[in-house]
Amino acid sequence: MGRRIVILGNSGSGKSTLARRIGAALDIPVTHLDALYWRPGWVRAQLEDFRAAVATAASTDSWVIDGNYSATMDLRLPLADTVVFLDVSRSVSLYRVFRRQLREHGRDTQAPGCVSKVDAELLTWIWQWPPRRTRMLDQLAEEAPATRQVLLSTRRDVRAFLADLH
Taking the model in full, what pTM does it have? Predict the structure, then answer.
């Protein structure tokens, strides 16, 4: 039986890191939605192309897909057996984004041809997270009521979740 895991959370919450760790622990493919959405130079993909790429990634038996992108929830949530919601504070998200920027400065990190950056759009996204968080949790309750939902708020929570994977 396959595993299908969606990871959601604010920018800087640790979605990509957790996705990689789950993928390695379960030996299943990892898809980062940022890599499907962004084109070189931070150009957004056409919605139809993006949705097609997400549908392809979600069509396999086992996967971890990290990223919010509400326009693709309908493609992922019905297929997921687990939704992991990383619920860290804005200050933790901001700290991690700036730390990532220092670590990855000048490198393609989110998608090919997209050099790591911290800009006003990203900072605004993080700061305005609380209302988005509420909408996302409402969407999960509506679209995936029977799917296992895991809320992780601390590193201890993440460690315990990873230890319990089988």
Answer: 0.91
Burial class (CB in 10 A: 0-12, 13-18, 19+), 102: exposed
pLDDT of 1 over the 70 cut: no
Query: Mean pLDDT score of the chain, rounded to an integer?
Result: 91
Domain residues for the domain of 54 are 4-164
The domain that contains 156 carries what CATH number?
3.40.50.300
Q: Residue type at 89?
A: S
- Closest alpha carbon to 69 in 112, 31, 117, 30: 31
C-alpha distances in Å from residue 138, one per residue of 76, 79, 143: 16, 18, 9
At residue 106 the predicted structure's pLDDT band, cuts being 50, 70 and 90, is low
Element (H, E) at 82: strand 82-86
Is the separation of the CB atoms in 33 and 56 below 8 Å? Answer: no
Closest Cα to residue 109, out of 17, 4, 24, 6?
17
For 113-143, how does the pLDDT look when each residue is reduced to its tens digit (9 = 90+)? 888 888 899 899 999 988 888 988 888 888 8
* Structural domains counted in the chain: 1
